[in-house]
Every structure is written in C-alpha cells, then in structure tokens.
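Quarterly update from the structural biology core.
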Amino acid sequence: MEGEGLIHISELSRKTGASLRSLRYYEEKALLKPARLENGYREYDESHIEQVRIIKLYFSLGLTIKEITDFFHCTISREIQRQCLPIAIDVGERKLEEIKKQIETLRKAESHLEESLSSWRDVLRKGEEQNE
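Predicted structure, tokenized:
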C-alpha cells in the first residue's frame, strides 16, 4: 500500500514534541529530508522520529546548529561516518569538557548550600534552646 508508514509534519511534531517551526528549520538546515508530495506537503517516515529526538538531545546539550550539522549525519548514516567522525569527536570532546566544568561548578554550589543550610539550622536550634 502506497504511503504506508508515512506521517505528516503535524504528526511528527506531536510524536516528538518539536514545534512545526522547529521541524521546518531542521529541514532548512538539511538535518531532515522529508519526501515532498506533488501538492508540496512534507511526508516523513518513522526514522525521522528518532532523528528529531537526536537533534533535540543535541540542542539540550547546548550544541549550536552549526555543531550539529557538522556531524549529525555521522549519527544516522553509516556510509559517511568515517569522513565526519573527526569533527564529531572534536565537538563531543569540547562539549564533554564543558559539561565536566558545569558539574564541578554545581558540586561546589551544592557543597556551599549544604554547609549554609546546616549552619542556619544550628542557629535556629540554638535559638530555640535558649528560649526554653
């Protein structure tokens, strides 16, 4: 049956949580390549759902559109993987270093906050003991 397994952009948006505007933007940047019908409508297949989820994951990691487009096809296509792996590795290593710095900053903030809370609770307990 022709068209079986194909979905329209609105359904792709619903299944992935990506806005229609975002999906069109991904297409403009060649991250998604839907089939075009004679009437101009876009049709996606099930593989596009995973592609959109990967794109959203990369954005959530703080990657720019340029960084994503530089190596995105490495993650979805085996044929060109060797060509773009050095770029993907470089971007991945830089992002990993950035994340490690963020984690360290968060650990310091966590430690400081725990110490402050402990100190403040001690002050309250001592104040309550003096009032008894």
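Residues 81-131 form the longest helix (51 residues).
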